[in-house]
Amino acid sequence: MRYFSKLAVLAATAAMLPFSAMADTADGDALNAMEWDEIVELARGGEVNWFMWGGSDTINQYVSEYIGGILEEEYDITLNRVGVTDTASVVNIVLGEREAGNMDNGTVDMIWINGENFRTMMQGDLVYCGYPDVLPNNALINWDNPAIANDFGVPVNGCEVPWNTAQFAFAYNTALYDAPPTTIPALLEWIEANPGQFTYPAPPDFNGSVFVRHVFYHAAGGVENLLGEFDQERYDAAAEATWQILNDIEPYLWREGQTYPASIAALQQLYANQEVGIVFNYEPANVGVNIENGTFPPTTQGYAMADGTIGNTNYTLIPFNSPNKAAALVLQNVLLSVQAQLEKLQPEVWGTQPGIDISRLDDATRAMFEAVERHPNVVPAQDLADTALPELQASWISAIEQGWIDNVGSN
């Protein structure tokens, strides 16, 4: 009941968003046939409602102030950033609108998305597709890269565009511990040797779910045994071992595993308060940001795992019934611009890795990206890349999350 209450509140909030009297009138096919200048003029003076995870103040500020400022100053477009805690709830808004027959006046103009949520929207025919070639900055995207062209194993097929690349990373306080555990087996031993000093957000929280997948990879004998379409027999074998491992460590977790943090923000606060000794995030640069803003102690150090961590690409997507598609296209093109990608690479802004292929830039511009210094306490990107692990197809992830809820979270 709590989930549906949250969804109802989100829908009610969305319904109160201001809509421009000059919303885009062209449908997707018409937009895809237009010249870029025509799309910009159609979008000018309008607005765009971007629903996105809102759990980071620095990301929120970058989007609302920096990106919103560009849209307002250069295109006279108002950006309405709608922060959410669960992207699946936004997918349900769009799905509900389709089921209600709302085919061209939806609430949501754009979503920050990837993985199982993208798969769900594709399966539900909820996505506006076929437009990337219209975007001038599409030339900066390397669609020949399988990690870009496929979203958790699902072909993108012109239905979303990349925004960032990311990889899971751990961090610890060097003032409290001499060295961190650098493999999943070592981490499990560390948890038992340091009672109360570790926990993870409860799935389906994004970061909590990723942590559980690392244990699942370990229990399966390596991710190579899980790749491809979902296989019940392979899932069952790995799942049984995974739930046993996670239930075995539960008494050694923070608060003896009687409760789990609800979000990555809650885990970060526990780490900041020294209630736990290890923290993690799918965005490694988060360590530097939290040191600079005073949340984390300056003795926090990010690090790579010798047995690897999971990496992926995240995207922006326009729902099929967005009434402001032209404005959403302008927003996507701004997000892909050299200016915007370089700004969010700055460690004091966000520090996230570009979604564009910087090898496609001229020498002088590429040098600007290469010159950006990561915070010294952020794990070097190459250290992570050397042992990067792929994400599973979305069907695996849904099963793992539900399996955790049924076999670990409900105990």
From TrEMBL:
Give the record's keywords alphabetically. Answer: Signal
Question: Origin, by domain of life?
Answer: Bacteria
Query: Where does the UniProt annotation place the signal sequence?
Result: 1-23
Q: Which SUPFAM superfamilies match?
A: Periplasmic binding protein-like II
Protein name (database record)? ABC transporter substrate-binding protein
Which organism is this entry from?
Gymnodinialimonas phycosphaerae
